[in-house]
Amino acid sequence: MNSIKFALDEESLTNTTITVxxxxxxxxxxxxxxxxxxxxxxxxxxxxxxxxxxxxxxARFTTGASVxxxxxxxxxxxxxxxxxMKVTAVEVLGDCPADKYPxxxxxxxxxxxxxNAHLRFRTNTYSAVFRMRxxxxxxxxxxxxxxxxxxxxxxxxxxxxxxGAGEMFRVSTLDAKQPPxxxxxxxxxxEDFFGAESHLTVSGQLQAETAxxxxxxxxxxxxTFRAENSNTTRHLAEFxxxxxxxxxxxxxxxxxxxxxxxxxLIARVLNSSMDDLQFLDARLAEEEKSKPQDQRSEMGLVxxxxxxxxxxxxxxxxxxxxxxxxxSKPYQKKKFQFPVEWGVDLQSEHERYLVEKHxxxxxxxxxxxxxxxxxxxxxxxxxxxxxxxxxxxxxxxDVLFPGIGEIIGGSQREERLDVLEAxxxxxxxxxxxxxxYLDTRRFGTVPHAGFGLGLERFxxxxxxxxxxxxxxxxxxxxxxxxx
Length: 483
Description:
The protein is of the alpha+beta class and 483 residues long. The protein has two domains: 98 residues, CATH 2.40.50.140; 313 residues, BirA Bifunctional Protein, domain 2 (2-Layer Sandwich), CATH 3.30.930. It has 14 helices and 16 strands. Helix 4 packs across helix 6. The two termini are 31 Å apart.
């Protein structure tokens, strides 16, 4: 048995007899089966002899039916493909009733396909997306292995909240209606399975730091969870995160690592997924036509990826970013929806302006105000890149991409015990719950840094899809966990 991709690409198979299997995309003129097995977006045309295949069998070649074909692979008689199969034997492996099968050979809305998520992988759009998701995932492991990082499995169940957001899913075996109470009348989590209030993790960073401060370089790649009641096109309740941590690394090294990872992954999909990219590029171009002229992207999908790959990332401070935005035409003409002033977090519209209009290249912003960043980020001192006389800043860095804004967030971590404890007190982070984390600063502390990359957000960028629910197999969102 050969894959259809191998049959189409391997020239040595031409004029030989092979067997393939797949699902019928179309059957036309009672002779031509367009067969696809998921190995490529391209179909293999299988030409049957009507004298050899009876009408009853031909009637079973409906869209979605699974078929096995054996025959000679010959140079194609028509355009659009290098070879086709002259079928000598065909078997229907699984019927697909045309009157009941939801995925017909026509354009379906993405919303309709989300409602049929168990079948949407069979469409060209989603098969392309998930092949590219594989390439990105494989490339992540490839990159970090090449750079000497150890793959670290952070716990999925945790008693700590790395981000301090409080929007976490609780993990408990207590009776939800009648939980045990302590003397203060509060839920007694000592009676719970883990003996403490526990949650699904929002980040493996804190645990990864403990490993990096022994192994030198580690990275996590696993599921993370946020109980945020949001139904936007950028939010999921369950998603996959990549979080490298490296001892003896400063902020510059952190930025270099992030830029290197992004370019490695983009180079990989450009090299390995061009068929899928070209299909998704054409799909995006068609979608752009329906938008007002001023909202259309200046670049197609493939051009956008090459744009990121070929340009060095611009590195600026938060101060620089705010000053550029204050001088910008959109700000002067009051076209920004969100305010621009020192101390506020940058919104997607601000980030995209910096990347797409001002610098026309990817941008890394550092030196954010401490009050809008996490407790574990290193506090800047005079002379540090990102220090500001306008207020306390931290050695945070956000990588900004065209079309999407922030795609990576990271920082040099605060390695000084006294400064870290002061920040925790300032932000109301309980030190007693993170005693083990503080131990890494008590015993042999070193400068170290890391970042987080959401897999789905990166796949969203490289595929050109507009909704994050379309780049994860089964999206988990408020009110939805059907499949």
